[in-house]
Hints:
- The chain is 57% helix and 4% strand.
- By secondary structure, it is mainly alpha-helical.
- The strands form 3 sheets. A 3-stranded antiparallel beta sheet has the order 5-6-7.
- Strand 1 and strand 2 (14-19) form a beta hairpin.
- Helix 5 runs antiparallel to helix 20 (511-528).
- The protein is globular, with a radius of gyration of 31 Å.
- Residues 650-689 are annotated as: Disordered.
Amino acid sequence: MPRFEVVTNRYGSIIDVRECADEAYEMSQESQSPLGQWSNKYSSVLATLGCTLGAFNISRFAILAVQFGANFILQFLVLSLLVGIPLFTFHSSLGQLLGAGVMDMWRISPIFKGIGIALLLAQAFIGTYTVIGISWMFTYFRDSFITKQDVYRWAEPIDEYKEDGMPWTLSSNVSYNIEETVPGYFNGIVLQRKYVEKLEMNDNLLKLPVVINLTIIWTIVFICLSKGLKSYSKVMCIFSLVPVFGMFMLCTKMLGLAPMIGFQHHDIFPETDWSEFFLNTKSWVAAFTETFLTWGILGACTMQITSHNRPKHLLHRDASLVIILTIAVLILAAFLANTCVHLLEAHGYVYLPSSFERMSSYTFLFKQNSAQARKHLTPVRWMQHSSLFMGERTMKNNVPGMPQESGYQAMRLATELFPATFAMIGAKNISPFWSVLFYFVLIMFGIGQQIAIWHCVVSGIISLHPFKLRKWRTTITFLSCAAAFSIGLFMATELGIFIVYLMDYCVGCGWWIMILYLLEIGALFMVRGRPYSGETVVATLFSQANHHLQVWMAPMLSFDWNIVVPVALILLSTSVFKNGGYRWLYNWKSVSQSTYWSTSSREFGCLLQIIPLLIVPFAGIIQTCRYLATGPPDLFDRIQMLYRPVIETRRPPETGEATSEAGVNGSAAVQIEDPPPKYTPPPSYSTATGARSLRFTELVTVYEND
């Protein structure tokens, strides 16, 4: 039932009756980030697209669609609607409502500031090791520039010899096979590996091509972020819209090859078996994990980007565009990958999962009806899968602790499936332009996502003291990029691919990041509560939307945030931990034959996961000591300042760059109260008696006249 407000004047007379809006929509939404606002209304949506679309999830989604068929795509859409998109809109709405990222948002509840530190550390981990995958694409991009008379370099035998005296190709004769040259190119040219069959631990020399590519990427990231939002907003169109259009063009061309190999569009997903839609739990776990890796794992970056929105920004419009474009590009990538599989099958090859370790395990193409292909009797969709941020694991024997093979490969679409398809077709049948376009699109998506991640890292550091550190933005950006580049050099060695796998296995799994997001939601809705309840946060998303969205979608989304998303995060975190075999990681006993990692590697991996989780209670203890040691004389007031302090809306400055500055650590604290009614003094005694005498005189005069 609608509520009405009666408006009266100073004398108590009714002058108007108005219908009241919902209380959630009455809360002020003028909090603005002290780090600045977007100069263009479309900058936010383009930057947010980098959080949901990257080279890694495009490749991962496409390969999973090949392995599970259309079942996986439908399951992903269902879980995205229930969990993924609500988690994405939660961070988008919270960022715009508070005008803060994961670091400075905890002014609303300082005891939980450790959650922000842990989430920022998680984003820094991801941005540091995943950049190596983008550097690999530069080598493929360079070698795609050929003429129609040439052969792709990954289709040729490698003439160079390794230091162990064995050639890269498995064949001893002059002829070569495509199933040998493509993985040999990735290991020999891209990774510059010299010891494949037997790992040499003493070879720690840097691989110069990989180092050069890393230097180029970090230089681009620094240039794009050196001037803050001013430089970031200018490059978003290049790293967001251009690769999206390129992906549409590429998929249209590849799907146009379908009639050439004689398959119909309804057969494009050969692994689809609708009778297994509810029975195959491995497909559901893969879709559930992919949902989080697409919509949730970079939630801190999404929140930081939307915190720069201006008040009353059309957030629901931005979210809708990002969701539509993300789903469209991922589905197109699935069609692209399955088309490549059909093209390989038309030439007599079968595509099967590989493992990166050695020559005997990294082969992924087999002749149909060959002895190697017949050994894989179990369908791929029934093998054990584990999705990671950069790649995915497919364990053929269902033993997570297998000592020889991990079943892992990074970016299978870009390093296996697509180059093998183009090597098979040849430059005479399809223009090399499409290979150039494919790797250019992946590079653009990858750098765009890297910029979004590192913008969150740099902004999180500056948020510690925004008014002191903001003038040092360029220096902080340079130092952080230089530090990440230095760490990335470890992945440009002979052991680089093993370090990438260790980082992806420990960080890219995301099970501990799910726990951090669960703590974030619980701290916000259960501990802090009003005025930062689910109704208030969802009001930011639909404040400028039509009435139907406010009435129907807002309550459903608020319920989803409070109930469905927390339960889903608990279930998914448990499932990923169990399915990925992480109990082996926490077994620090002597190395046995069933253990893949050494003891020191397992200890390092455990620290990567445990330290961010331990930061939360340790930071809470430190904050408790700080707030209870100083403050108001009343102990209960100090406790309230620790858990639920009074917060004021942030106000933008009048001059300077378009930023919003306020208070201590970027915030002020003045409670907005309803002002008291204006006071009207009573008339003086002489005025009152004079008025009565005048009234009496008038009455006497009227009586005498009568």
